[in-house]
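Much of what follows relies on a compact textual record of a protein's fold. A record is reproduced here so that you can trace the correspondence yourselves:

. . .
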Amino acid sequence: QVQLIESGGGLVQAGGSLRLSCAASGRTFSSNVMGWFRQAPGKEREFVATISGSGGSTYYANGVKGRFTISRDNAKNTVYLQMNSLKTDDTAVYYCAASHFLITTTREHDYDYWGQGTQVTVSS
């Protein structure tokens, strides 16, 4: 059974940092594109960041570029999202996802496996 389990969410003040982790089990995702998405209250889920299987290619949504960093440790079957300079607008449930694509993609429907999400709340 394939599972993606996110952790690391929580409550942080604006300007602070959090690091999210996504641990995969049930199969190896070292060749798969992985991504992070988020859904704020009352809004549709949106793309945040994506990373290639090797980790050599990354792509970010404009609103997080320069503040967030996606990375992966294939030996641990884990993907990370380092979030710095957090803003209240970053408050959302953050989801990890795995795609069968071999090149980075921002489209939700390109992702086959999803985690349950972890809440990130940024206070002013």
The two ends are 40 Å apart (CA to CA). The CA atoms of residues 8 and 27 lie 22 Å apart. The chain has a mean pLDDT of 96.
